Amino acid sequence: MEQDPSSYSKEDQSKFVDKWENNIEKIERNRKIMREGREAAEIYKNLGLMATEGYNIRRIDKIP
Predict the structure, then answer these.
(1) What is the pLDDT, as a whole number, of residue 21?
(2) Structural domain spans, the chain
(3) Predicted TM-score of the model (pTM)
(4) DSSP states of the chain as a string?
């Protein structure tokens, strides 16, 4: 079902597009953060890092 484009003002359409673009940018930022986290976790796993005094690093066998 399509909405009649004339029912929205140009200002409302512009606000909708701005919000949509902001959401896409947030998704891309989150995707980048998740990818970097996954890569960092893989490095820790491959190095077999163990906890040392003063640091809370555990050996990681499987990433959830």
Answers:
(1) 95
(2) 10-64
(3) 0.53
(4) -PPPGGGS-HHHHHHHHHHHHHHHHHHHHHHHHHHHHHHHHHHHHHHT----TT------S---
